[in-house]
Design a protein that fits this description.
Helix content is about 55%, strand content about 0%. It is mostly helical. Helix 4 runs parallel beside helix 8, helix 4 packs across helix 9 and helix 5 packs across helix 9.
Length: about 300
């Protein structure tokens, strides 16, 4: 979710709304010129995945290389930056996430009311949850009004740099990228420690894996097809994770397609953001995020299923 060590946000990235959009559109024009000079036909703005005679069925379906500013053959960025929060993410992984996952796995293994079918349903539930949750988290972290908040601000500022060099995310060291969601997962996954409901624990356990899927779905959407793992291509082809083209629409205007897992929630999210609800700059989205993050605790409290010392 982070774009560490990218160049500092440009002035246009610090402006909002239509000014920012027009600036970024202008940027795409200049990028297009450079990509055109590299004679990459797939980067033509008028081309579509299906218009490329060499496109494979997977390419056609996933829309790789549709937009000129995401020309996957762009050689200007061939290195990903190190995770600036690596040490803290590693510590959280070792000292919080792994113990929580171990506790949950042991509890679920011995739970009489949790079987294989329940674990499968919990995985689907976690998959459905992470999609809109990623959208709300994305809205919050894109919002520069949070940049001065203690803790959140540093993460938001780093996250926003992804807009400057989108393809950089595909070049980050994989192990470090894996650790990037540890803090947000620890916040929600740790709630398993005091929830009595075993299905809730199973869902929070599954959420670790769907969170990683969401993270890598975003990374794959910026990755050149020849570097993309076959598993990623299959996930995109089946719609389990979003296509390149779907996510790249977000990078055109920054006011749509905020959800970054499968993208199924974006038609709804796009209606809510700016139209039926608040715009993406509204700080009340943080409240929505907080409710989503603590929804297991809220549901547990409502149902009287919280137990701090089982
Ligand atoms: Zn964004
Ligand atoms: Zn992106």
């Amino acid at each position: 979710m982070r774009a560490p060590d990218a160049p500092a946000s440009s002035p246009q990235m610090r402006s909002r709304g239509s000014d920012r959009v027009s600036d970024r559109v202008s940027d795409r024009g200049s990028v297009r010129s450079s990509s055109e000079s590299s004679s990459d036909s797939s980067s033509s703005p008028s081309s579509s995945p299906s218009s490329s005679p060499s496109s494979s069925p997977l390419q056609k379906k996933t829309g790789a290389g549709v937009l000129p500013n995401f020309n996957h053959s762009d050689t200007s960025t061939r290195s990903g930056q190190n995770n600036p929060f690596l040490l803290s993410d590693l510590l959280v992984f070792l000292l919080v996430v792994l113990p929580v996952l171990s506790y949950s796995a042991n509890r679920l293994y011995n739970a009489p009311d949790i079987g294989v079918a329940d674990m499968f349903v919990s995985l689907i539930t976690a998959y459905l949850f992470v999609e809109p949750a990623s959208g709300v988290l994305h809205i919050v972290l894109d919002n520069e009004k949070f940049n001065d908040w203690v803790g959140l601000g540093e993460v938001a500022r780093t996250f926003q740099r992804h807009h400057d060099r989108p393809i950089e995310i595909s070049w980050r060291p994989t192990a470090q990228f894996f650790l990037e969601p540890m803090v947000p997962y620890a916040v929600i996954g740790g709630q398993a420690l005091y929830l009595k409901n075993n299905f809730a624990v199973a869902t929070l356990f599954s959420l670790f894996f769907t969170t990683e899927l969401m993270m890598f779905a975003h990374r794959w959407s910026h990755m050149a097809n020849d570097r993309k793992p076959y598993f990623a291509k299959v996930c995109q082809y089946l719609g389990v994770t979003m296509s390149d083209a779907h996510h790249h629409k977000h990078h055109q205007t920054y006011d749509c397609n905020f959800s970054i897992c499968s993208g199924w929630s974006n038609p709804v999210m796009n209606r809510l953001v700016n139209k039926l609800f608040w715009d993406e700059d509204d700080m009340r989205w943080f409240g929505v995020l907080a409710v989503l993050y603590f929804s297991p605790t809220i549901a547990g409290a409502v149902r009287g299923e919280i137990e701090f010392l089982p």
